[in-house]
Design brief:
By secondary structure, this protein is α+β, with helices and mostly antiparallel strands. It has two domains: 76 residues, OB fold (Dihydrolipoamide Acetyltransferase, E2P) (Beta Barrel); 162 residues, de novo design (two linked rop proteins) (Up-down Bundle). It has a five-stranded mixed beta barrel. A hairpin with a 4-residue loop joins β6 and β7. α2 packs antiparallel against α3 and α3 packs across α4. It is elongated and about 65 Å long. The termini are far apart. The structure holds zinc ion.
Length: 246
């Protein structure tokens, strides 16, 4: 069977001299794993279209045991990401997130659009990496069915407090008065809590539209990272690497 779709290359591995094994976040079939013959050759017309972080129109041939990519045309290359090591590392983390959190074998239009938007904002300096990252993390977790409960303190029902504690293990909140054991919990200022709620509850087109101080962004990132770690039960190697160079 053969189908045409659009997809973002989120992982590439070399196979021999000329070929690649790719993971592609596609619009119509979610994350697919597919061979691309000749894609490693610089002379190949498919070289640019089938490189990491390229967004391309592809023809996918589904075999009994594996998939392969036939035609491929580039729609967008985030070339400015490649000129900045820090941005490139963050973009690779976005790819690892997509590989972990996006569905297989089903429509992933929302996921793809979210990841593409994140890469675009990062590439064009429209938003800082520390603002884009928690938005993508929390939204991908929510799309994967891991919706945290950020409405109020889980004990007394307070909507806000000078300090609220976010428990990544359960995705819930306790206010400063109710929080007893704080092990593993992340402290959030009022502004950081508002931002965390925004990353989960805001409309898609408003997701990246907010401002937060550096201190607030630190809290927000600490909360989203911890949440992803618990929900997906993994350490993200590309995130560790991004942190070492930041
Ligand atoms: Zn409380």
């Amino acid at each position: 069977m053969k189908y045409r779709t659009e997809g973002l290359i989120i992982k590439e591995q070399s196979i021999g001299e000329q070929d690649k094994l790719l993971h592609v976040l596609t619009k119509s079939h979610g994350v697919i794993k597919a061979f691309a013959r000749g894609a490693k050759s610089l002379k190949s017309q498919k070289y640019a279209a089938l490189s990491l972080l390229s967004y391309s129109r592809v023809t996918v041939h589904e075999g009994r045991d594996s998939c392969s990519i036939g035609d491929a045309q580039t729609i967008r290359i985030f070339s400015r990401l490649r000129q900045d090591v820090k941005k490139m590392c963050l973009a690779q983390y976005f790819c690892e997130l997509a590989l972990t959190a996006c569905p297989r074998g089903q429509n992933a239009e929302k996921h793809l659009s979210l990841v593409l938007n994140s890469l675009y904002l990062l590439s064009e300096d429209k938003r800082g990496g520390d603002l884009i990252k928690p938005c993508l993390e929390m939204r991908l977790a929510a799309l994967a069915g891991y919706m945290p409960n950020l409405l109020m303190c889980g004990s007394c029902g307070a909507y806000t407090a000078p300090v609220m504690w976010f428990y990544p293990q359960t995705g819930s909140l306790l206010c400063g008065d109710c929080a007893q054991a704080k092990s593993g919990a992340v402290a959030l200022s009022e502004a950081a809590l508002t931002a965390l709620r925004h990353t989960v509850y805001a409309d898609d087109d408003k997701l990246f539209s907010f401002a937060l101080s550096d201190e607030g962004l630190k809290m927000l990132n600490a909360a989203s990272e911890a949440y992803l770690k618990y929900r997906f039960e993994k350490e993200f190697k590309t995130l560790d690497f991004y942190k070492t160079i930041s």
